[in-house]
Design goal:
Number of domains: 2
Pfam family, one: Acetyltransf_6
GO molecular function: acyltransferase activity
Keywords: Acyltransferase, Transferase
InterPro entries: Acyl_CoA_acyltransferase (IPR016181), BioF2-like_GNAT_dom (IPR038740)
Enzyme class: transferase
Number of helices: 11
Strand content: 25-35%
Length: 331
């Protein structure tokens, strides 16, 4: 039986047990993670004959201007369907998405996980399924084998970082990482970055630390000055490269290359997959940087649709054109 559950109706103990046992398991889908990045999230669940969860679909819903909609949360690249078996029937995807379709007229984006294979046709009017992707590096082989798969440029930049006498330090202070991002990255992001995004990162980091699944690493020069930082999540056989930034003076020192190589070296030969949380190829510099470590693309199905009334769509489009005009961007 398929049921749609509001947030207060969810059995989070049962939910997390399913996620932990699921072949598709990811830290993003744990209840405490969703509570941080998508407060009030809802879900579609499939129940077995005893009323226990056997398949789930988290629904990261929000509300604005009185309109409820679904949007992929920050710091949560994948969600989708999680089950107690590796193979999920097409009709389960269809039924679960139908529950979402009946309750939400607007889905900005629902990014499924790399283990989900959605039907080519969803049989729901106006629903589109596209593909995004991330980059994975399987660490099961030894470090020397992994290192040989680095590109020539990556090997060269790693040697430069080593010659710069950088050291790697564990930390529990995320503020330098946020400061680097504000100073060097946020101005290049369309629309800017609201302060709430940084506060959300702080909250998420605290939740990760409390559960012992975070590693925050910085590179430091000989004077002890931090110049690059990377935050990783280790859970369920995956190492997620969730956030990173570098100071301007640190970018030339290749600190992030040194940290990533350090993680690869440390976990090489173990049953981990490093998820670079790569952006799409529309950010080619970042994509190629991550790919230079020998990682390979993994597709992420993305569901979108907009069934809002025409007047609401026109208002939304006009608002976006005004914002772009005020920022001096092409319409």
């Amino acid at each position: 039986m398929i049921k749609y559950l509001q947030h207060p109706e969810l059995d989070k103990t049962q939910w997390d047990q399913l996620i932990e046992q699921s072949p598709q398991r990811q830290v993003y889908a744990l209840s405490w993670y969703l509570d941080v990045v998508s407060p009030g999230w809802e879900a579609v669940v499939e129940l077995d004959a005893q009323g226990r969860y056997k398949t789930v679909l988290p629904v990261p819903c929000r509300s604005r201007y009185g309109i409820r909609f679904v949007q992929q949360p920050l710091y949560c690249q994948q969600l989708g369907v999680y089950a107690l078996k590796a193979s999920i029937d097409d009709n389960v995807y269809q039924q679960m998405l139908r529950e979402v379709y009946h309750r939400f007229r607007y889905v900005i984006s629902m990014q499924f996980n790399t283990a989900n294979i959605l039907p080519e046709s969803m049989a729901l009017p106006g629903v589109g399924v596209s593909q995004s992707q991330t980059l994975y590096l399987n660490l099961a082989t030894g470090y020397e084998t992994l290192y040989q798969r680095y590109t020539r440029d990556r090997k060269m930049n790693l040697k430069r970082a080593q010659r710069a006498q950088l050291t790697i330090a564990e930390s529990e202070d995320i503020e330098p990482l946020i400061s680097f991002f504000k100073a060097e990255t946020q101005e290049r992001i369309y629309g800017g970055v609201d302060e709430s995004a940084y506060e959300l990162l702080r909250q998420l980091y605290q939740a990760l630390r409390q559960r012992g699944v975070a590693r925050l690493l910085y590179t430091e020069d000989e004077s002890g000055r931090k110049n690059a930082g990377c935050l990783f999540i280790l859970w369920g056989g995956r190492i997620v490269y969730i956030f990173n930034a570098s100071a301007k003076y640190g970018r030339k020192l290749n600190g992030r290359t040194l940290i990533l190589d350090h993680i690869i070296r440390e976990y090489a030969g173990q049953a981990y997959v490093l998820d670079f949380e790569s952006p799409d190829t529309d950010e080619p510099d970042i994509f190629h940087f991550y790919q230079s470590f020998g990682s390979v693309p993994a597709p992420i199905p993305v569901v979108k649709y907009n069934r809002l009334p025409k007047a609401v769509k026109l208002f939304k489009n006009a608002r976006m054109r005004l914002i772009r005009r005020l920022r001096g961007l092409p319409e």
